[in-house]
Amino acid sequence: MQVIVACVDDESCDFRTHVHQMDYEKASNNFSMPRPIGDDWLQRINHVPSHPPVLVRTQGEIMFVVFTSLKSGQEPKAGDAALREVGAILQQTKRASDICGRIGGDEFCILALESTPDKSQEWANRLHEHLTKGLVVHKPTGASVGVAFFDGTHTELEEMLRLADETMYEVKRAGKGNVLVRSF
What we know:
Alpha-Beta Plaits; 2 domains; single chain; alpha+beta; four-stranded mixed beta sheet
């Protein structure tokens, strides 16, 4: 199962990981997973985060978890400055209904509901402009923006993420610093 954790306040805290199985109990905000220890292979590891998630969705083999804050008390690494800037730009350019988070490395994902291909293209162009002109750290920056637009027939989150990822890599192969919107 792939677990994607996103944080609204600080995208540099976001990550994705693979686990054999993970369950979530909304009433207690408890995440749990089986762990084989000794003869008791059904023992469960339980974790209740200090800040409850605002959204937990599981579809197939993907669990998407969104927190408002993941304050850990640890100082951010110096290399995270550019990622924090990108996160801030994403927060400034997204709509209130959009969900955005870092999904690994220097890749971010935005789930934009209630959009059209034309609106997606306009937003992607605006985002690209903000990223290439607005970053203070690590200039010059070549931002590749790949948008996968789904017309409502795709309902599997894993497939949607795969197609969005392919679109982004298609942009990178064509030369960094471009925008591509594909409809599926």
